Amino acid sequence: MVVGAGPAGMAAAATALDGGLRVVLVDSGAAPGGQFWRHPPLPAREALPTADLHHGLNTYRALCATLSAHERTGRL
């Protein structure tokens, strides 16, 4: 179980999942992301250059893709 689905929690969950473990990711927010949600809402966010957003936005997108892939397998 990983408590907190902010950047660190997402990374911890992805690492555990990539290692073959099953993970329960728990957070008080409606969706994972933590501090990454402090940006303009979509679609406005997609129109901005990445440099105008959080310095780790590409990492966040990669973590979302990793977690989504594992969710489809039933391990998350």
TrEMBL record:
Lineage summary: Bacteria, Bacillati, Actinomycetota, Actinomycetes, Kitasatosporales
Keyword Ligase set for record: no
Residues passing through the membrane, by range: none
Entry keyword Nucleotide-binding: no
UniProt GO molecular function: oxidoreductase activity
Keywords: Oxidoreductase
Name of protein: FAD-dependent oxidoreductase
PANTHER family registered for this protein in UniProt: ANAEROBIC GLYCEROL-3-PHOSPHATE DEHYDROGENASE SUBUNIT B
Organism domain of life: Bacteria
InterPro entries: FAD/NAD-bd_sf, Metab_Enz_Cyan_OpOx_G3PDH
